[in-house]
Batch of 3 targets.
Target 1
Amino acid sequence: MKVFVTGATGFIGSAVVKELIAAGHQVLGLARSEASGQKLKIAGAEVHYGDLTDTESLIAGAQAADGVIHLGFIHDFSRFAEVCAIDRQAIETMGEALIGADKPFVVTSGTGVVAMDGMLTEDIRPMAVMNNPRLGSEQAVDTLAAKGCRVSVVRLPPSVHGEGDKHGFVPILINLAREKGKAAIVNDGKNVWPAVHRLDAARVFRLALEKTASAGTRYHAVSDQGIEMKTIAGAIAARLNVPLVSLAPDQAGEYFTWFTHFASFNNSTSAKTTQEMLGWQPEYPGLMADLEDDVYFPAE
């Protein structure tokens, strides 16, 4: 099928484009600039110019394709509420254009959108009272599903890792450790992050697109269901040859600043249902293998 992909030149999106083309699909990729368009052409995709705030381009792209994968997101955490609102609007715009068309629409969310103790599973929905701007994206999905849009969600973990990861959560931790001369955990660092390799995540998006499932279905692109933060930070400390320190919650803000919430949240996540529904199994290295290899610390 012909697939309209937003975020098509990003770290994950570029892997999804390759995965789709390798499986025999055509790709129509959203591009904001000539440089992005050239990257898409080199990858073998068709270019559709526009951006996430250009409603006309989003509608045209969705209508020109047989299915849509929405991976685009403005990664500016200094205006997180604003970019989450833009994401919700983009989902609503494309989804409304797809109602009644029986075209698959795969939306990206995060496992961290559901704050809870215990194991997060695909059937769990975020509570409406949660104070998380990202919640709006999943709320938009449920509204569209109720209207007859064939929409599903792929939730990504805090760490989507692999070659080329320059701006994700792991590089943030590494850069902080370099800058501060120490790697830090909050309290005992027993809180966990799930993780997935970008190429394994790309396959989940392709399979979710191809799968006929109930509207509103959630999938978890998760390989490692939970790695303790002290293990992640300890590996970073060892590779940088800096100490690993424990910080009390009231000290963490000085070290982590805006990243404090992410460094301390607990997000154990299962992908059992996703594996069963899609016949998906992770094939690529886990996060700790990438940290211990030269993926994040290339040999000089």
Target 2
Amino acid sequence: MPRITILVGTRPEAIKLIPVYKKLLEEVNFEIRLVSTGQHKEMLQNVFDFFGVSPQVDLGLMTKNQTLSLFTSRAFEEIDKELSKNPADLVIVQGDTTTAMVAAMVGYYHQIDIAHVEAGLRTYNKYSPFPEEVNRRIISSVANIHFAPTEKAREVLEKEGYNNIHVTGNTTIDSLLLTKRIIETNAKTYDLKFKSDLSKKGNVLITGHRRESFGEGFDIICDAIEKLARKYSELQFIYPVHLNPNVKDKVFSKLEEIQNIVLLPPLPYDELVYLMMQSKLILTDSGGIQEEAPSLNIPVVVMRNDTERMEGIEAGCSVLAGVSDGIFDLASEILEDKRLYWKMSQAQNPYGAGDAAKKISIVVKNHLHSL
């Protein structure tokens, strides 16, 4: 019986790989092992609970204030033990996290085939996003199967000399559409929970956590948010704040006292999707939200200097503001120009239609049966 190990470490990885895990479980001829490294321990558990999934093992690698080097070294050691104890015929990783990079490398050391979900994303700036840009290039170099979310990602991989590339769309859309249906079925519960945080006149959702913006970058981001909140006092600005002290301390010191800014703790995935659904604009540095928001018809201002998701920019779903005054300028333009707002909100999502996991499972099945 073919053996598959799927490794996740962060909340986005779980959101994007759970549809694949569930679809592969339908194949009774596979032995599937879901392994968590615990890179985002609390956030991961919320996702597992919501989707009714439990990993077979949690390596519990994350410790307080852990450096990238220390986490990476521990991940190499523990994932090696896992694959030595429980051999696999295929290791599936997603995206560009340290968990994904280490799992791909350890699988390669064990001469196990590697499947990379969300392959082919690039900025070609090795420090933006950091360390993700280098992580995903390393994964590509050892992967046997590349699941590209878009044609642009396929073109990147082909240009770099890779083959066995399959365009599937992005699995985050699979999870988003399922979550949206669940929220709509239980709308009153969500409405009641966030009643005091939302404004009937309009809401702007903010997410920001990227490592490359620590320090001066978050000063710029917070200053832009403050200017927007003061200019558009009728709107509510809602910011679920990441727990990293480099983010949390800065955001609270600069924005906590502004009346129409609501600072929340990190939210479970379904609650974040609910807030997205209630928003007229999103300011974010998240890769996942750049992919998800177009399916909800919400314009996005990307608070990054580079993005590996240019499809959304080119489709008109989002604008790239940089970590600069462009955040304030572009958000103001979108909020005030009704024609621009309508055009962005109606742009077609270039990241797929919610059937990526099905496409991936077919390729995996054919690959394993050919071994």
Target 3
Amino acid sequence: MNSIFLRAKHWQIFVPLIAIPFVVMMIFGIIVGVYVINHQPQRPEDMAWIFYLMPFIMAATGFVQFAWTWNVLTKLSKLIPQEKVYMPSGRIKTFFIIPVVYLCIVPLFGAFMISNIGRAEHGDPSGIFSMFLLGLLIFFMHLFSIFCMLHTFYFIAKTIRVAETQQNATFSDFAGDFFLTWFFPVGIWFLQPRINKLIENESPAPDEIDEYHGLIDG
């Protein structure tokens, strides 16, 4: 199974997951600080550009976790016996993608709300109504995205457990794995070695490879 994220050691995932976000946020904080000092923005609208940069920062910081999750859901799931365990792959993939899209577009909503603050402050009814509707939309989108993320954590934990046991499992069987997935930076130290073992067991042994090449050559 050719997947760099499933074959990587726990520390190889942990380091970019923590180091890259830290460096990126430090640089972003410096840029914002320098801008505020040099330009001294007087209105909230002057800072709206920050929200346009947030999707790129989120993409840089969340790439490792999202890529790892996608590989578990799409590649590690191939080790699950389909005749014993049903996994709704279409729904799993859809619910995984929804929070990703939400995290990318919500900063744009934030920038739009900031641009309407001036209109709301002057008592413009359309500005107040637009902010109210957008805030309500973001609230429900946020709740649904949280549900989708919990759904994803559930099936990651179930996938790992079922791949190990080759038997169907209930939530009580993988509740611990669910919380390890939820607290990903810590959980990866416990989950990734088990995934590495599954990948190693799935790969053909060296003597099997030699026997295969011998048959081909013969």
